[in-house]
Amino acid sequence: MTTEDYLDAEIETASPEEIQHLQQGKLAKQLDYLFARSAFYREKFEKVGIRREHYRELSDLSQFPFTTKEELRLSQAACPPLGRHIAADWADVIRVNSSTGTTGKPSFVGITRRDAEIWTRITARSFYTQGLRKADAVIHAAGLTMFVAGLSSKDAIESLGAVFIPIGTGASEKALAAIQFLGANAMHCTPSYATYFADFVRREAGLDPKDLGLRKLFCGAEPGAGIPSVRNRLQQDWGARVTEGLGNADMAPIIFGECPNQSGMHFNGQEFIAVEIIDPDTNEVLPMETGVTGELVYTSLERECVPLLRFRTRDRVTVTGTVCPCGRTSLKLRCIGRTDDMLIVLGVNVFPSAVKDVVSSFSPATTGEIQIVLDQPGPQVVPPLRVVAEFGKAMVETATLKTEIERKLKAALSIPAAVDLVPAGTLPRFEMKGQLVRKAYENGGKGR
Description:
This protein folds into 2 domains: about 1-340, ANL, N-terminal domain (Rossmann fold), CATH 3.40.50; about 345-445, 2-Layer Sandwich (GMP Synthetase, Chain A, domain 3), CATH 3.30.300. About 30% of the residues lie in helices and about 25% in strands. The chain is built from 11 helices and 20 strands. The chain has helices at about 10, 15-35, 40-45, 70-80, 115-130, 150-160, 170-180, 190-205, 230-240, 350-360, 400-415, and strands at about 95-100, 105-110, 135-140, 165, 185-190, 215-220, 240-250, 250-260, 265, 275-280, 295-300, 310-320, 330-340, 345, 350, 365-375, 380, 385-390, 415-420, 435-440. The termini are far apart.
């Protein structure tokens, strides 16, 4: 490998011990900042008897309390616009982004100029890890307004010298025209949109998507691009390499990025974010070892506006490796879903993305589109798990296919399922995040 294979070679190839030493010193300064500037954290620490001197080395971080999204929402509601957890002067805030959670209420995130510089570097490093280079022209087919990874992706892509083409969402005709007339060779979008857009190109333009010349698909914002069956379909549809990124609206837009080895997303915020993986049930910190599964927890190391300590992301991840042929030394992982999306069937934890993976594996007999139908609020599900899946356009014996899918779901996930097969095109398509669960108990049984 050469230095051209990395955006920041020194930090990306540093040893774990070097990163730990760097983070240890930065966290000490961030804690000084929190104790001095954040009434929100001073009160949290006081409630549990934590003092500044309790932190001496990085391992002491586990003594400190977690921060949850619910706390941030309450803080913001009590003290608008950015909450009691803001630690910078409002006059120093240069941008406000927002995210919507399960309640649908907006949660605002502010950044200072220094925060923006850090976001840009982490995001640029993640894109570079995925293979973005100066010669590329990128269709941005994701949000551009309050979406955290909108303007931040623009800043990051332009900082690398690549061409940023701001299409946004709901504009497939414009995206198609831009690819054709501007010669774009890459696209940044959700895996749901990449699937939707491939169907659009075939249906509306009568073209084979792979003939358009896209060679790099940078996907994120939802699990999918790392699901083998989904990824294989996208790569076949587009004739492009598919990689995925993972971020967090409260911490940074894109924090992990997958290298062309396609074996998991590398952590790319080494000097700006400390990462932990915890058991979401016991809150125990888990080792960063291959095969470990748990919830991602982030701590900012150099944040001015809304520094967060031990922020629970609710992202359920599995570590796929701690070494890589690409030479990067940070851990790699896959996101398998959100802990608040998890369903429990006969004591077995089930993520909607895993169900989609099984159904997608029957392609072309299935289209890969699914919806899990819940008759009552989760996570407990009275068996069997109800799954609606589309069969492909080719002639199939639906009774046999139904039995085969149910059998594979039982074998792969250890749960009983009742599969209802419907014709291709029946289920809704999504240009942003896909919705794999329909809550039939809401809105008079119609779901969302």
